[in-house]
Amino acid sequence: QVQLVESGGGLVQAGGSLRLSCAASGRSFSNYVMGWFRRAPGKEREFVASISRTSGSTAYADSVKGRFTISRDNAKNTVYLQMNSLKPEDTALYYCGSTRLISSRPITGLSSYPYWGQGTQVTVSS
Q1: Looking at residues 88-113, what average pLDDT do you find?
Q2: 64: closest CA among 79, 80, 81?
């Protein structure tokens, strides 16, 4: 049974920072590509960031590039999303996802992520 538990969301003013965490259990976390996605009110879930299994390669959505940083600690079975210079348009429910793919490259496609956490809310006020 795969379990992903996100934490770290909250309410922050524009320009502020938050760090999201995703704790994984139930499988060989270090083998698989991980990612963060988000769903804003009235919109579809969208890709935010992904990291390869050895942290050697990352990918970001254009809207967050230069502001967000994804990282992972395989010893702690945890993936992180550091979010800086937050904007009101970053307001969304943020989800951590795990693939079943052993790859040295990040993966951006939603359909490649069969495992999801419950989400953590990020609200950025103007």
Answers
A1: 94
A2: 81
